[in-house]
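To whoever is on call:

I kicked off a structure prediction for a single chain this morning and the downstream step that reads the tokens threw a length-mismatch warning. I double-checked the sequence; it's 214 residues and nothing unusual in it as far as I can see. Pasting both halves so you can look.
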Amino acid sequence: WHWIQRENTMDWMLSAGDNPWYQLATRFGLRVLAALLLLFIGLRVARMVGNWIARKLARSELDATTSMFLGRVILVAAQIVVLLAVIQTLGVPTTSLLAVLGAAGLAIGLAMKDSLSNIASGVLLVTLKPFRVHDQVTINGSTGRVESISIFQTRLRGADNQLITLPNSLITTDSIINLTPGTVRRIELVVGIGYGDDIDKARAIALELMQADP
């Protein structure tokens, strides 16, 4: 009985091997398995490489703003390369795919012009460096310490510990007040005195109080 069952199994395998649908399913299944394995390993490797490059850039002479921005750009580029390799593993022709993506990219670019302007503004912020990470700035009426400059947006931490997120395109089209570079800053205080008081005496008292404060 075992011999007959083994013979039937061999006959089924031989007949299935001659079936074109079985061959197609086997070939496609192996491609999908290889693509999933490549996607899993590739994304992990891309993240490791991106973190390693970010650490190297942070230790170099580049400032924190530029190194952070370049690290994220390199990570995104590595992930795109992995996705293209996965698509090629699945058997999709990359040349025709790139042509389709180019045509679709034009339409998407027109629809996402605001996002593209944010990317261009982010490159300008990193290149021109009107401010850096940890600087105290005032932009569009919002004042805070710069926490990060990403591809699309810049984050500030306000004095009340609120997180302020500003699109990069809004920053480059508005005035930027950087409060960090100067070590001495003028502060205006309005001090009211009575109409009958001595102005010179009040001024002398105010100057004495300021000079006594370190």
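Update from on-call: the warning came from a stale cache, not from the record. Cleared it. Sanity check on the structure: The longest strand covers residues 142-149.
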